[in-house]
Amino acid sequence: MQTAVTTRVWRRAAWIVAGIVLIAVALWFAAHIPRTISIFLIAAFIAFGVQPIVGRLERRMPKPLAVAIVFFGLLALIAVFLVVVVPLAISQTQLLAANVPAYAATAQGWLADAQSSLQQHFPTLKLPAYGVNTGRIGATQTSSFISGAVASLGAIAVNTATGFFIAFSSIILSVFFLLNDTQIAEGFTSMFPSRKRQTARKLAAEVTEVFGSYISGQVIVSLLTGAVIATATAIIGFKFSLILGIISAVAYAIPIIGMLIAQLVAIPLCAPQGIWMVVWVQVVMFAMARISDNVLVPKIMGQSVGVSPIGAMFAVFAGGELFGVPGLLLGIPAAALIKILWRYFMAPWISAQLEKS
Fold it and tell me: Which is higher by pLDDT, 191 or 43?
């Protein structure tokens, strides 16, 4: 009896060691093929994001037609973005670069006003006789930026071409994932023992639903947030509304701290148009962020992910500390995945151990 127990313990230990070795080898291999990993990860995210829409259309038509309609719409949106949004964004960026001296002058004026106010309230306070020449700093920084950009045009062109190749390959691969989702799911379940395959199918379906709902919901909420901020700030006369809308859409995808960073970035953008423009833009961004947090997110994302607010905050901060920006973006779905795996594997095992004792 003792020998059988010892053999079982050693067998489990061997399986654990083998698993650790396999994970280490997989990580080493993945580190040497970063572009391939990027293509597959982006394709998986695209497939997860559009899968809920494809699933709804699939109830009324064949799957290939549903996939074709969804990706035709996606490509149409990309075309609109490239033809309409990108030129406007470039135009506003050029205007922004041309206003760097105005930024410097505004900052110099704010510093001078602050210095005069301090001198009035604290006459004995010793302040420097000369302020910082922000205009010269702005011109120097702009010149350095332009020189560096011209010098790196070749690298920018190569990186742009690589980005387009990765994006195009990812879209094609995501179509393959959607058309062959049943075979991929069966391949996943085949890795489990026969008696566990039904559980593995349920696990794969739940993970697909959670990730698909989260990704599609996050994209929808971020786009709505950015679009409303861009439109509202354009109505009040803000010159860089489209740039701010794009920044806000990207920032809102980073939970908790993203919009705070976007609001800080908006302050210098608004500065040349006066303090009241700063105030009104901050009001618009704050109000839209609260509407998104309290109305859009609970309806579109909150119920589908199933992570408590405390768990979400912990996941975001822990993910950001461990993996940087990707960890901030993926902290909540990773927490949802851990919760699902716990419910399917760890909870039954713990219950079985407690029943034995």
Answer: 43
